[in-house]
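Lab notebook, page 48
Experiment: co-folding of the full assembly
Goal: obtain a model of how the components sit together before planning crosslinking
Operator: M.T.
Materials (sequences as entered):
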Amino acid sequence: MTALLEVKDLAVSYGAVPAVDGVSLEVPPGELRVILGANGAGKTTIIKTLLGLLRPRAGAMRFNGGVDLGRLKSHQIHMLGIAWVPEGRQLWSTLSVLDNLRLGGFAVADKALVDRRIGEMFERFPRLAERRNQVAGSLSGGEQQMVAIARALVSSPKLLLMDEPSLGLAPLMVRDVFALVREINRMGIAILMVEQNARQALKVANWAYLLETGRIVESGPAAEVGSKQSVQDVFLGGHA
Amino acid sequence: MANGLVIGSTYAVVAIGFALAFTVLRVINFAHPDIFMVGMFAGLLPAAQWPALGLGVAVLAGAAGSCLVGFALERTVIAPLRGRDVLMTLIGTLGVAIALQNGMALIAGPDPVAYPALLPRRFLDIGPVALTVRQLANFAICILLLILVSLYVRRTSWGRATRAIAERPDVAAAFGVNVGRICQFTILMASSMAGVAAVSVGTLYGSASAFVGLLYGLKAFVCMLVAGNRYFEGVMVVALGIGIIESLVTGYLSSSLRDAAAFFVLIGVLYFRPNGLFGSYAT
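Observation: model returned without errors.
Model output:
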């Protein structure tokens, strides 16, 4: 089976400082894979490079049958069916919830389809329907995360890139978000998620990569990686 | 007071052009006031040749002239330098501004040129105020432009994308917005608007000068700083307010203090609200 996303020997640096150094990974269609890593390990750098917001120094990124992402601009990459849930939500704070969702469907030519999908989002997230005309900046953290996820789904992507969706949320909200991640994946959307919350992420993912200072040091089925001593030590608070 | 609204509405159109460039592209476009000036002369040309064609054609010619200069500026200076340090485009556009001013002074002469009388000078009484036809037309044209901009950024898909770029260009790009294209369109729109307003101002005062941009540019820049760049409508309101303050200062204090008024407002507002009255995006 060919992977939906295939990354080979990716290297990205900020000036002379390498942030990602020879990372290879793949996401098969319909799978939910997670990259675990501490702050500064290079997780967000990988995501931003896939989105065309950073340029790789070396390596290849192929999507959906071999399209070379390294040659495309961000808006062209989005058109291929890649959507993003950015770290810290990054909503358009002065725009209404509804306008944020509409912009999620900016690249979809059929605006009636966009309206229908937004309707589905409001059905799934009634809280957002109530607040549709409020500016996004006035919502709580959890609600903003729902907007960020709904915004990414309006374009009906093949691959969803999620950057620390649980960051800065209350514990109850964190559980909701991971349940939602699993629900989205069951709809058939492949997900590549980066997370620090290893315990929760390993519960929902099929496959896990462990990233340390820009390199992948462990890779395997989520349950297997979760039982490794190194992961236990770093993320799961030792062997309690 | 009514006179202040008339002049303020003109400031507002020029200020919105500044604000669009600064908010959306992070470019301080010092050539914008001189794009306004070029529009004034571009409208003068057909109006002087064929006065029978009237204001409509002059306005179109002004818009086209400004749009053309805006396009050249975008291609040669703004697009190649976008995303670099703010100072780079500032210096680049300042250079273009100087070239435009002196180029026009070379063609049209350094002294003000008479503007064809496209509208009668007659007074109209509207309730308690008396305005000339020219003042009323200038006000109506400028307000119409402002309403159109406001509708554009709030109601259209491209307008929403424009505001999205203003706040988070990266996220907008990752959601399929062709940032370069919308930035280009933004400059063309701002330039064309300035051209329309310029023809209407030329008609209002009956003269055009290669150095007219400086005065409007400075005031418009102040309006943007006072308002902050978070809401375009904030810039419009502040510009109208500054126009009114200027006409009150002229009427009750002294006309020589008029041009200083805007700067007193600027100092006062920035002292208490450094991000402007309506707030600004972090840059």
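Interpretation: Chain A touches chain B at residues 48, 51-53, 73-75, 77-79, 83-84, 86, 90, 92-95, 99, 102-104, 106-107, 111, 151, 155 (CB under 8 Å).
Next step: discuss with group before ordering constructs.
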